[in-house]
Each structure stands twice: as structure tokens, then as C-alpha cells.
Amino acid sequence: MRVLVVEDEPDVIRAVAMYLREEGYSVDTADNGEDGLFKGITWDYDAILLDVMLPRRDGWSVLAELRRQNKTTPVLMLTARDTVKDRIRGLDTGADDYLIKPFELSELAARLRALIRRSAGKSQPIIEIGNVTIDMTSRTVSVDGTAVALTAKEYCLLEFLAIHRGELVTRTKIYDHLFDEYDASLSNLVDVYVSNIRRKVGRELITTRRGMGYIIDS
Amino acid sequence: MFKSLRWRLQVWHAIVLLTVLTSFGGIVHSLHWQTRLQQVDAELDRTAGAVMSQLRRLLPRPPGGRPGGGRRPRRADEAAPETDATSRPDMNVAAAPRSDSLRTESSTDHPPSVSSEQAGPPGPPRRDRFDPGPLPEEFQQLFHGDEESRLYFVIWGGNGDLLQKSDSTPEISYPNLHVGREGLPIRLVRSRPADQTYREVIHAGMFDMNILVGRSLEKDLAAHHRSGLLLAGAGLIILAAGVLGGGWLSSRAILPIAEMTATAESISALDLSKRINVKETDSELGKLATVLNQTFDRLQSAFERQSQFTADASHELRTPLSVISTHTELALSRPRSNEDYRGAIETCRRASQRMKSLIDSLLLLARFDSGAPSLKQDRFDLKPLLEDCAELVEPLAAQRQIRIECEPHSCDVRGDWDRLSQVVTNLLTNAIRYNVEGGHVGVTTRVEGETAILSVTDTGVGIAADQLSRIFDRFYQVDKARSRAEGSSGLGLSICKTIVEAHGGTIVATSDVGVGTTLEVRLPLATESAAAATETKSNEFSKELLLK
Fold first, then answer.
1. Is residue B495 within 8 Å of B489, Cβ to Cβ?
2. Which of A83, B15, B170, B254 is most buried (CB neighbours < 10 A)?
3. How far is it, in rounded angstroms, from Cα B515 to Cα B461?
4. Is-contact A59 A52, C-beta < 8 A?
5. How far apart are CA B267 and CA B313, in angstroms?
6. Do β-strands B101-106 and B186-192 pair in parallel, antiparallel, or remain unpaired?
7. Higher-confidence residue: B185 or A49?
8. Is residue A103 less than 8 Å (CB to CB) from chain B?
């Protein structure tokens, strides 16, 4: 899952980005509205964390412009303003959720998960594929009721494929969603993750479409 | 409801209207009666005249004189005429035992023709005593022919003997009148009895006889009663119309007030944008509405300023709080290296320092806002203060290779050293922060009249005119990204302005984009007389803040 964090306070960005990366997200950051809008339009993020008070272009305007350009990326607004008026304005402009500063990182991560799940059309936090169960709340995978230890990236790749079950997921798409701007896009990185998942969860779960990508059959 | 202005107006209006109508109706009614009585009197007088002319014809001619014309020249010793018949005791007893109104008039159109030598009964009969005997038929006709008029007459002699009376005469008492020695004929008018059903005119002293002509007033009274009722009815209608009209007028007058009240009630802290609809700006209510609207404007802008300030302040406080909260949570989320812990603690420390300085600034502003700044009033030289401050910011300037040229002259001001140092340090820090690398900052002082002017000039990027007017606003930041990076909250210049104004001074910024910015602080020079002025100004400032 790839998210964009737009926030002008460098210390907050640092903490949020690090926490989310440790959760397995790939994180892009922007410290002003213009930069945030540019990245938000250019990339297909799974979610955007958007602060309201930003230099150069405020959060409202970034959100309005994103929606005007038909970007349906789920947006979680971060704000220090907690009046009802502000919340209504945010939701009316097209924000999907709200978080008031100061916030807990764990709550931020939970809301982000829920947002991404909802936008993928999966409101249930548990996906079952044959004997494999993926719990998106606790971020755990079990085979026949036995927990399997996956790294954060491995889990994210499996979750991403599971959410898009029945669809062909191209390597480019995987790179776009699972690796951020700082990751070197080594072409065999995905192959390594996929073979690790197969080793831990089972051979037959992920099918390779040679030269195109991967798919979990529904 | 009955205490409302409208009701009070209505009641007062009704009372006033009722009073006016009643008194007016009363006056008209009584005038009408007076006029009627005068008409009756004139009629009675005419009749009496007719009776007298008849009598004159019947009278035997007195020797050497025309009938009724026995005039004698008035003697000097009889100068005191006793014209007032009412004052005579016999008259009082006999003439008007039950008379309600008795008027006497000196009859000037009848010159004295007959006089009685002696007054009062039993007076000796006069030589020209006359007994008219039965009156001729046509004379009686006068009192019988017209039943409607109900006229009657009585003729009696000076000694009280009844001489003649008409058949229609009711039971009445007739006064035994004695005309003064001079024998001035008198005319009396009376209404009798107590219910005023008869009106009588008495001509006394004519041929030593008294003639009373009277008339029943029954019909007149009935007519008068009717007209009175009519008048009362009309009065009631007018009153009703007046009260209704008054009610309509007062409700019309009150309506805008009710509208204003409704609008004013609907204006609350949640929605201050509503205004009273002003239709006629020149009317009293229009003026009131305009004044109220202006008050609402001020209230709204004060409220908006306040809520903006609160929002900004809370945002500024929440940001470092977010830093602390996220970094502690991150650090504790899994085992970290010592270096990571150290980094997290350092970040938290920075954030807490930022919060402290922000809270200090907010407290300072709040203290000044509440009007109790408790400034010292020491007299000191600005020169060492400027040099101290320049020295303080020297390390920051050195970091950016910025040269500070501090060349102040001595000038004494009165005030709080620490607060003014805060102002100068703030101005210098800004001048360094928003300067170009390798630029310079100039600090100078000069004296203009009673004012000490200290100016801080930088060679920075300058501030555009539209932003320049806002730089003293709380939380306003020209370059938010840069300010944030510098850890500035946007309160510095508004604190400077507040402190300078509390000292009775002013602060002005001028800027050329690309050339630099100059901030000028004008403070009153400390002279002996200026000390008091500063204090007054400072007090005024406090009051002004209280009013804001």
C-alpha cells in the first residue's frame, strides 16, 4: 500500500512516515500544498493523509483540486481545527475521514487500513482464500489456523493481491503501490517477495502470468 | 402583555381622547343650552314688551305726561339708586324663595318712567295706581292661542297684589318687588323651580307694576336632552374610531420594533451575520436600527477575530503536541536503538520548548489584552539597550554571515527595559532570519521633536504591500513554510506592536520588495513632563484594550 503524507511540520512527517513504513506501507511525503497536489495527481496512491494548514496551498484547496481532477483516492484529513463547521466542510469537499491533532499513530494506521479496505470494496477485515486467512486488522496470515510469519512487505504484497483477487496485478502496479519514491525499483524484488510468500503460505495461491504479472484466482 | 409599550400607548391615548371628547361635548352641550335659553329669554322679552305696550294703552294718562312717560328728573340726594333688587330683604323672601338663577340687569332701554316713593310693603298706594281689570280678549289670546308655547304671564302691583294673570299660569310664587326710590325699572330673569322647567322674565317697576312672563321649558329640555344623547353617541363613535385608529397607528409604530427584536433575538454567537432591515434611515427607529447594526458589525468582527485567534492558537499548540505524541508513540512501538530513543527525546524537547515559548507569548498578549500590563516606568538610555540586543543576536547573524551595524545615539526614554529589549531582539531576529545570506542589518536611532525613533533595517527580500499591512496581525506569517522551518509562530511582531503601544509609541513597517524592510519604533522622549503623559497614554491604551 502506498500512501502520501502532506504535512508541513517536519517532525510530524518524520514520525508518521517512519511508523507507516514500519507497518509495511510505502510512504511519500510533501511539506506544502502545491507539492502535495502534484504528487497526489501524478501517482495513484492508496490513500492520502492531508493536513489542513499548509503553506502555499491549504488542505481544502488541495482536496478540492484532486476531486475536480476526478482523483478518487481516499483522503484522510489531519487538522488541528476541531469545530463542527470545519469537519462538515472537509467531508463536503470530499474528505473520507478526519483525524484531529494531536493523534495517536495507532489510530491513524487503523483509520488508514479501514479507508483502503473500503475503497477496495472490502468492508470485511478478514479475507479467506481456500485454507489461507488474511486478517487485515491484526495484519496476520494463517494457513489452516496456523499463523504464518511474513515480513511487512511480504504481507503487504499478499494483502494487495488478495484485495484485488480475480484481477491481474501487473508488476508496475505492484511497484507503484508497494514501493515508495526512495525504494530502488529493482525488477527482481517482486519475484523475491512472491517466492517467499509461496514458500510460507503455499505454492498454488499466487499464479504467475508470465510477462504480465500475478493473480490470485477467485 | 398589558405592560407592553403598545398597550400603555393605547390606554393613554384612550384616556386623553376621552377627556378631550368629554370636555368638548360638555362645553358644546352647555353652550347649546345657553343659546336656547337666550332665545327663550328674547321670546319672553318680546312677549313682555307686547304685554307692556298693551298695558300702556290701557293705562290712564297721568297728569301732564304720556302714559308711562311720567318722568321726573333725578334728584341729587337720591343718587344712590337701589338697583339691586336681590339685595333687598323683602325681595329675597318674597321674590325668589326657590329661584335657581336670578339675574338682574339694569334696563337701559327703559328709562325710568315710574318710581315708587316708598319701598317695601305696606307701601301706600300710588296715585296712579292702576287696576287694569280684565284684559281684552286679544290679549288673552296671546297666551291661549298657542298652546305649544305654553306662555304665561302674571301682573302684580308694587304692594304684592295680584292684578292680572293668564289662565295658563302655573302655581308660582312671584316676588314682591320694590323698585328703588329712583324707580329704575329692572329686569329679572330666572329659571324655576329646581328642575328648571320654567323660564321667567320679570320686568319690575313699570307703572308701579311687575310683569312676569314665563314659559315652560319642558319641550326645550326634552330637545336638549335628545341633543345631549346625540352628542354622547357621536362622542362614543369618535372615541371608538379614535381608539381603533390609535391601536392601528401604535401597532404600525411598534411593528418595526417587534421586527428589530426578532432579528436581534435571532443573532447569536453561532450566527452573527444577520442584520436588521433598515427601511427609513432618517426615522428614529431607522437610526436605532442603523446604530444596532453597527454594533452587531463590531461584535461580529470582534467575535471573528477572537475565534480566529483561538483557532490559530490552538493550531499552534496542537502542532508541537502532535510532534511529542507521535514521536513518543513511534519510539515505544517497538524496541529501538539508543540513538533512536535519544533522537525521539530531543525532538520532544524541541517541541516542548516551542510550546513554552508559544504559551509565554500568548500569556503576554493576554495580559496586555486584559489591560493590566504592569510595565515599569524607568528612565533609561536606548543606546546600551540596542547594543545589548545586537550582541545577543550576534551568533545567529554570524551563522548567516550577516553583519549588524549598530550605531545608535543616546536618547532617553521611559518604560520597561526588559519589554523593550524583547521588542528590539524580536526585530533584530526577524531582520536576520528573513535576510539574504551575507546581507546586513542596520540599527539606528534619531530624535524628532519629542520622539525617539529607532529603526531596524534589513537587506532581505522585502514584503509586498498587501502583506505589509497584515504583518502585525496575530499568527500572520508572510512565508508560512519558511516561518515553520524557523519555528516561528507568527506572534513576534504583534507582541512588538502591543508592547510599543503600551509605551505610548507606534511601530511602522516600510518595505521595498527585493531591497529590504525597515521597521521604525517611535517612542516618546523621556522629559520630565513626558513622564506623566506616557503614563496617561499607557492607561488610555489599557482602556482601549478593554473596550476592544
1. no
2. B254
3. 6
4. yes
5. 26
6. antiparallel
7. A49
8. yes
Give the pLDDT score at B125: 40
Q: Could you give the strand order of the β-sheet that contains B516-524, starting from the edge strand earlier in sequence?
A: B403-407, B440-448, B451-457, B516-524, B506-512
Write the ipTM. 0.76
| Between residues B449 and B93, the one the model is more confident about | B449
Min Cα distance A205 → chain B (Å) is: 31
Q: Which residues lie across from B188 on neighbouring strands?
A: B104, B202
Q: Find out whether A39 and A63 touch, Cβ atoms under 8 Å.
A: no
Cα A136 from Cα A122, distance rounded (Å): 11
pLDDT for res A186: 59
**A84-93 helix and A59-68 helix, angle to the nearest 10 degrees:** 20
**How far is the C-alpha of B538 from the C-alpha of B541, rounded, in Å?**
5
CB of B190 within 8 A of CB of B96?
A: yes
Judged by a CB distance cut-off of 8 A, whether residue B351 touches chain A is yes
pTM: 0.57
CA of B470 to nearest chain A CA: how many angstroms apart? Answer: 17
Neighbours of B282 (CB within 10 A): 6
Q: Are B472 and B493 in contact (CB under 8 A)?
A: yes
Determine contact, residues A79/A59, Cβ cutoff 8 Å.
Answer: yes
Least confident of A36-50, B354-368, B369-383: B369-383
Reference B356, options B320, B324, B322; nearest CA is B320
SS3 content of chain A, % helix, strand, coil (to 5): 40, 20, 35
Instruction: Using an 8 Å CB-CB cutoff, list chain B residues near A14.
Output: 327, 347
- Of A151-160, B16-25, B92-101, B409-418, the one with minimum mean pLDDT is B92-101
Interface test mutation site (partner A, options B303, B312, B322, max chain A beta carbons within 10 A): B322
